[in-house]
């Protein structure tokens, strides 16, 4: 009985008649696959970070009310746009503290929120006390995304029976 021997310097053919792939081939293929997976993983982490780091426009609204309640000018400046401050006349900390230093607690409730491209619009019911009388006001806040940060850009009073945000 004769046995087949592998040719000198070659690889032994498999039972199907094809030569087996050398080990370096599988190592190279595994390395390329691993690099590809690392690139996809890094890209997924980057996208995830960008999505999670977008901020929350409602936090801006909360910061705005907190700045009024605590007469915190730095927080007010950080949560509003320059245009908003110019339109309200609250352009410096001295003016802010002079005009809002005696504001008591203001309660608010977000009734509706709609997101737009670069904007979030909030309808808010604000309740406060003025000379012993409870006052309730419907307001619409426009929070704008500028350079990756959400800032309060505008406020308007919603007239009774006015158009809802759509």
TrEMBL record:
The entry's keywords: Membrane, Transmembrane, Transmembrane helix
Top-level taxon of origin: Bacteria
Membrane-crossing residue ranges in chain numbering: 23-49
Full protein name: DUF4878 domain-containing protein
Origin species: Brachybacterium ginsengisoli
């Amino acid at each position: 009985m004769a046995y087949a021997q592998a040719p000198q310097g070659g690889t032994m053919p498999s039972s199907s008649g094809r030569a087996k792939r050398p080990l370096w081939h599988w190592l190279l293929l595994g390395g390329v696959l691993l690099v590809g997976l690392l690139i996809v993983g890094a890209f997924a982490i980057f996208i995830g970070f960008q999505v999670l780091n977008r901020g929350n426009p409602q936090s801006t609204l909360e910061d705005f009310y907190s700045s009024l309640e605590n007469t915190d000018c730095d927080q007010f400046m950080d949560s509003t746009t320059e245009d908003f401050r110019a339109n309200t006349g609250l352009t410096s900390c001295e003016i802010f503290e002079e005009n809002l230093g005696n504001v008591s607690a203001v309660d608010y409730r977000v009734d509706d929120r709609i997101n737009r491209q670069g904007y979030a619009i909030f309808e808010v019911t604000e309740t406060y006390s003025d000379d012993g009388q409870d006052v309730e006001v419907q307001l619409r806040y426009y929070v704008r995304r500028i350079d990756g940060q959400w800032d309060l850009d505008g406020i308007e009073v919603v007239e009774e029976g006015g158009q809802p945000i759509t």
